Amino acid sequence: MIDCKQKKAFSIHYVLLLVLAAIIPSGFYNLEGIVVALLFVNWLFFVKGYNALNEISKGTILLFAFFALFLIGLVYTNNVTGQLKFIGRNISYLLIPLSFIGVKLTYEMVSNIKKCFIFSLIACILFANLYAIIDYLASGEMEIFLTPSIYNKFTYYGLTRVFKDWHPTYVSLFLNLGLVFAYDLFFKNRTYFLWGLITALSSLNIFLLNSFIGIIVFLLIFYLFILQILNGSRKALIASTFIMLCLMSIFYIKNPFHYPKIEKFKHTEFKITDKKDERNALNLRLAKWKTSIDVFKNAPILGVSNGDYKNALYDQYVKNEFFYCAGERYSSHNQYLYTLSANGTIGLILLILILYLPFNQKARNYVFLLFLAICSIFFITEDLLARQQGVVFFIFFYVFLSHPIGINSTNEK
What we know:
Strand order of the largest sheet: 1-2
Strand content: under 5%
């Protein structure tokens, strides 16, 4: 049996998991590091989960191997200080998976952790909406200047400005995952009113956040939901696919939210460039991706290292005459290419294994697989794992959603 001291440690651990799940999508994500550290210390000295290290999963081993590449980078990087800082920001690759070893979670606990994520996210986005409304009513101005651009107060950075560095693409990612959780927790349990409120608010804000990849993922989730409702029949598949394609075409042609990116895309030629009069969202991405591939060619096995990545990319931008990208010091804006250029072919192989190995498992956790699918799509246009918020989000839910669920509580043997 577990003694009283360890029972208390398990209870504290559970509370810390709830707090971390609430902080991750919020505007207070800068507190993540503190909670992760507390979680690990509690696991190491009180939960003593290291006694169950033999239960370590394949996914956790892959995460450790991926982190090991950052350590190996210290050997060949020209920027040891930058590499050490990167390792410090990414220590969650070790601490979070370790903090789950030997910890048994019940279905109720798992549900409550997901609810903390949803309700925290909804509270923050609702606050952002209300802030924008009050600001508009007080000033009478629809737009606001945020260095170096002007934004609509209800969209994109204009909406997320209520919290420091609350990136619209990350919020869109969180909202999409929140929709998956809401369906699993509320729709399946016939709590339709609450599910409807969360879905309506999340859907509206996904469009307001003006993240193309977020909107695409939302439409795919909506598509899967329709298929689920219609029981996945062949006729339903054909009809829903046709409707989805029509809706996407109408959205692009009509551009109901008047997205400048769409209008720019319509009136510029498709080419790899970053020149002012010729660039659009896609052309600019292509310039970043081409440059990242060029950086990879200089160090194809282990990459240029995370410490040297920014300088190597900047130098390559200049060499390719992408001076706008160089001036803005843009990153790859593609996690696969970021990993390829910074950590080489070995890093990309490990990342692909982390993302896609769970799809080959016999016992499938569909919420976990949807999480992986959502992240995989977001990785196409964003290097989410280059920021601590993205790292903590990905590692936490990767380990949490793949963690085995026990029938008994963690306080019992």
